[in-house]
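How a chain folds remains the central question behind the approach discussed here. For one protein, we set the task of working out the structure tokens from the amino acid sequence alone. The sequence in question and its structure tokens are set out directly beneath this paragraph.

_____
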Amino acid sequence: MYYRFKLEEKVRLPPSLLVMKLNDAVTKLLREKYERTLTKELGLILAVEDVSVGETGTVIPGDGGIFYSAEFNALCFVPYVNEVYEGEVKEVVEFGAFVGVGPLDGLIHISQIGNEKFFYDKKAKSLTTKKGMALKKGDRVRVKVSTVSMKGTTSDTRIGLTMRSEGLGSENWEKKEKARKKAAKEAKKAARKK
């Protein structure tokens, strides 16, 4: 889920940035420091916005920079267990599928795709069942977060996903299921008329 956090920080404005407008210089420094970073408390920080800098700075003897107090909003993405997302399958591999969950990717292990047994099809690069259900790259799916392990970088962060609960899965599966139910209903009607 996306969150907006209000943060406060003391920012050292180096002499090289004193030629810029104060707010622009502090915003530049905060964006360089925070954007695209990952913390356990804030999640993935996507953007620094609405920077407000205090009017007076502090000079420390022997340091050419000036320290300013700044308040700002950080737009963050934090996935929590049991949250449901709609995403796109980015890649299908032998052991499961990777799905885009906000700005990060999560893994649906092959055992968590559905209640039926799925098999990897090397030629089609998809995961399929004997009944014809398939999951391939580009499919839109509804997934639920089952585990989250936030590490120092996005490549080290692990998000485990599942599609085994009711209402989750591929949009294609929902369409096929509705068509199957409709055909079964029509077959019952036709059988009653005979």
Q: What stands out?
A: The mean pLDDT is 89. The CA atoms of residues 16 and 82 lie 47 Å apart. Helices lie at 22-34, 171-193. The first helix runs from residue 22 to 34.
